Amino acid sequence: MELKFEEALARLEAVVASLEGGEQDLDEALKLFEEGIGLVRLCDKHLKEAEQKLEQLDPKGEEK
Length: 64
Fold this sequence. Notes:
mainly alpha, 0% strand
């Protein structure tokens, strides 16, 4: 199951905070970094999908 945008963003914030704390060993930090990259891509995907939906609406809020 894919995370919703809000869930992915919250997890990304937690990953960043953890990495900023710097208390992990190198292997754990790399795992967190990789997870963070995946979350950034997922958030970007959600935002692009939302942008496409908005572009399909005319100024009155009706679908074209």
